[in-house]
């Protein structure tokens, strides 16, 4: 059985919940750590392990209020890792007045080969 | 003691709403962001401009921390010494202003990069960002090489910059990023 990855959000890192058993996959909050590579390392490792034994379908909800440019590079790495997960779909959430976050979701969807749904919340 | 009044007059005449000088780390970055956010919230600023100011502040502050630090992230938290960070507010919007020492040998490259960015329109900035994200690795200081690109995009205006001669080894790099309520 796969361990749950549960990272509480802080003022510069997002909350991460990756729970295979209950089918909950979510990254939310703010992402502006000094060392984004270090923060996202366990997330990418978890996804790599999950890819070889995944549920029949997986929806990852990304609800970011803000992320810095270093995080954007690592978010792309997370999305690239997800390309190996069968039946993956990304739900990219943005506030209806946040054009920049909507555009960011659009851009990420053009950079990886996985289905994206852009959703207002 | 005259400098206190002089400094105060400068703060007033330049419409500065926040000034911080000294050492910069991720911890001070978070404190400055919290202070500025509080300031923008209490003035009832609209959320779109608030987000853009916040965005530019983060990149500007993290640039100072990363590029002003002598060591990489493997050696522990980064520390940048002797920089200044300011925000001014006027009728048309905000300016994020920074100043930090940079080695004289880096001036030509930085000038080239910034002039290049300033010559690009929205579409080519978007392409540049996508290309960089696909093809670059995170640096030993944790940067993605996208800070100025993002600042230019969020600002929509040219990045204003200047260098002052500091000493034999360093120039002082001054940057002004405008955030206008009227987005171009």
Main traits of this protein?
heterodimer; A: 121 residues; alpha/beta; Transcription Regulator spoIIAA; 6-stranded mixed sheet; 3 helices; 6 strands; 31% strand; globular; B: 184 residues; alpha+beta; Heat Shock Protein 90; 5-stranded antiparallel sheet; 5 strands; 47% helix
Provide an overview of this structure:
The complex is a heterodimer of chains A (121) and B (184). Chain A contains 3 helices and 6 strands, in the order βββαβαβαβ. Chain A has helices spanning 36-51, 69-82, 99-111; strands spanning 5-7, 15-19, 24-31, 58-67, 88-94, 116-120. In chain A, β4, α2 (69-82) and β5 form a beta-alpha-beta unit. The mean pLDDT of chain A is 95. Chain B is an alpha+beta fold and 184 residues long. Chain B has one domain (2-180): Histidine kinase-like ATPase, C-terminal domain (Heat Shock Protein 90). Chain B is 47% helix and 26% strand. The longest helix of chain B is centred in the N-terminal third of the chain and has 22 residues, at 47-68. Chain B starts with a helix and ends with a strand. The interface between A and B is medium-sized, with 25 and 31 residues.
Topology:
The complex is a heterodimer of chains A (121) and B (184).
Chain A lengths: L4 E3 L7 E5 L4 E8 L4 H16 L6 E10 L1 H14 L5 E7 L4 H13 L4 E5 L1
Parallel strand pairs in A: 3-4, 4-5, 5-6
Antiparallel strand pairs in A: 1-2, 2-3
Helix pairs in contact in A: 1-2
Chain B lengths: L1 H12 L2 E9 L1 H17 L4 H22 L11 E11 L2 E11 L3 H12 L3 H14 L11 H9 L4 E6 L4 E11 L4
Antiparallel strand pairs in B: 1-2, 2-3, 3-5, 4-5
């Amino acid at each position: 059985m796969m361990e749950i990855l549960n990272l509480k959000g802080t003022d510069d890192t997002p909350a991460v919940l990756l729970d295979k058993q209950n089918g909950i996959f979510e990254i939310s909050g703010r992402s502006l750590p000094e060392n984004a590579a270090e923060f996202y390392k366990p997330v990418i490792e978890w996804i790599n392990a999950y890819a070889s034994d995944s549920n029949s379908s997986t929806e990852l909800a990304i609800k970011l209020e803000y992320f810095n440019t270093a995080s954007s590079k690592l978010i792309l790495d997370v999305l690239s890792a997800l390309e190996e997960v069968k039946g993956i779909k990304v739900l990219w959430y943005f506030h209806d007045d946040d054009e920049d976050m909507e555009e960011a979701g659009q851009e990420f969807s053009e950079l990886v080969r996985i289905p994206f749904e852009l959703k207002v919340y | 003691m005259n400098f206190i009044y002089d400094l105060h007059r400068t703060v007033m005449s330049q419409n500065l709403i926040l000034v911080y000088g000294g050492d910069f780390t991720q911890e001070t970055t978070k404190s400055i962001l919290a202070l500025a956010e509080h300031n923008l919230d209490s003035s009832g600023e609209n959320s779109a401009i608030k987000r853009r100011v916040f965005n530019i502040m983060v990149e500007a502050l993290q640039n100072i921390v990363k590029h002003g630090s002598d060591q990489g992230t493997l050696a522990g938290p980064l520390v940048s010494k002797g920089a200044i960070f300011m925000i001014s507010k006027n009728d048309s919007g905000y300016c994020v202003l920074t100043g930090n020492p940079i080695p004289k040998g880096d001036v030509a490259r930085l000038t080239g990069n910034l002039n290049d960015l300033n010559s690009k329109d929205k579409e080519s900035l978007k392409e540049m960002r996508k290309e960089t994200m696909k093809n670059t690795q995170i640096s030993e200081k944790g940067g993605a090489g996208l800070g100025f690109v993002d600042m230019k995009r969020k600002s929509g205006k040219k990045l204003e910059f200047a260098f002052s001669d500091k000493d034999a080894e360093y120039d002082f790099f001054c940057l002004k990023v405008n955030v206008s309520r009227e987005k171009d």
